[in-house]
Design brief:
148 residues, 4-stranded antiparallel beta sheet, alpha+beta, 18% helix, 8 strands
Length: 148
Amino acid sequence: MRTTAIVPEPADGSFDPIRMLRTVIVHLVYRTDWLSADPSSAYRPESLDVEGFIHCCDPDQVARVVASWYPARSDLLALEIDPDRLDSPVIREDFYGHGDFPHIYGGIDKKAIVSIRPVRLDAHGDATLGEREPSTRVSRPEGTARTP
């Protein structure tokens, strides 16, 4: 197994969009799970408790991950994360010979989510990412509210 650590830099409030485009990682989440998450704390999917880390991928790995793990799902969101804004460490690992994937060893801090994009399936079932939304603007279906 190959591992490479990405050590978070201290948060100093600076924002460099060019650097962010080079370093963004993606976490795929079901829309219902994201909308029911506590908005006041770090996002902690079940995999963190079960496996000890949160699965992520690079932007160029999204289509392959969706095809392998979420075929025919139209209810996915892609959280675009700046790893330098996370309080938890990110480690790139290749557990099964499928390539390096970033894993977050802790919760996903809301300050690290730079945008959220819906995952769309084209006519062939291939995943593409929809328009970027700021992380604070994720639309809820009409007539629904966040579950406590």
